[in-house]
Amino acid sequence: MSKYIDLHTHTWFSDGGLSPTQLVEEAKEVGLSAIAITDHDTVGGVPEAMEAGKGLGIEVIPGVEMSTDFQDHDLHIVGYFENIGDQRLNKVLYSEGLQREEKAKSMILGFQKLGYHLDYEEIKSKTAGTIGRPHLAVALVNNPDNAAKLLEDFGEEVTSTQKIFDKYLGGDCEFYQKYAHVESSLTTEEALEIIHQAKGLSFLAHPHWDFTSITKGKANFVGDEKIRLLQGFGLDGIEAINFRENLDVSKQMVRHYTLLAEELGMLISGGSDYHGFGNAGKSLGLKEEHMLIDYEILTRIKARLNIVS
């Protein structure tokens, strides 16, 4: 019987909407065998998730998603099986978390200048960690005081946070580039080295978005040389399985990045980037997108670390 996994998920310790326990419970409900907790710049939710996993029979992989600076652009690196008690790792994550918090405050101020109602303390009360973009999008859409302003901005009633991302919070949006001006002080090379010294493996997160463009239903792979450079820095793998736009385009990307990883002798991973609420509309385990991620991928990652399943 096939077993399926999701190696890219978030809890309310970063920008997710669920507690670690709730996330593990949902993994059980959708029939997954294993998930990795990859919160942004924190491993705070991992112990609770692992404890919940023991009780529910779900394998929980310790992970983290680190924000880094690569050629003056924000690049995310996912670590798996790192020692979550590593002092150097946690010191760096704490520093990056403070920068992420400053970025959130700046964006809240930007929305307030536009006439939206957002309150930092109210949003902060809904997370166990740092505020992320999904928290801001949900707060905007759910606050009835913003209904008139949203109607003015979008010309229709806004119920989807995806619209907020498309206009304001996407990485290429003018608003995001203006107000999310706090850059990571951590270089990609440093992040790779920190993950490795904490006994983990490093993977490039969501190249479907960061290193790929789409033209008339065709994926254009514009970042392959950068991936080759990252491999030279010590990158272990590529998150080859992810979902963007539709199934056909996503399959083009999965095929390309899987073949690239094979060519370079790198591992692949796969995940939904699930947050527990609809910032990107992707389901846990990519079940609704019909892109189930086979457990064999996790087996190969473990083999690189000599971990016996």
TrEMBL record:
SUPFAM superfamilies cross-referenced by the UniProt entry: PHP domain-like (SSF89550)
Polymerase/histidinol phosphatase N-terminal domain: residues covered: 5-70
Listed Pfam families: PHP
CDD domains: PHP_HisPPase_AMP (cd07438)
Classification via Gene3D superfamilies: 1.10.150.650, Metal-dependent hydrolases
InterPro entries: PHP_dom (IPR004013), PHP_domain (IPR052018), Pol/His_phosphatase_N (IPR003141), Pol/histidinol_Pase-like (IPR016195)
SMART domains: POLIIIAc (SM00481)
GO molecular function: 5'-3' DNA exonuclease activity; 5'-3' RNA exonuclease activity
Protein's UniProt name: Polymerase/histidinol phosphatase N-terminal domain-containing protein
Organism this protein belongs to: Candidatus Woykebacteria bacterium RIFCSPHIGHO2_02_FULL_43_16b
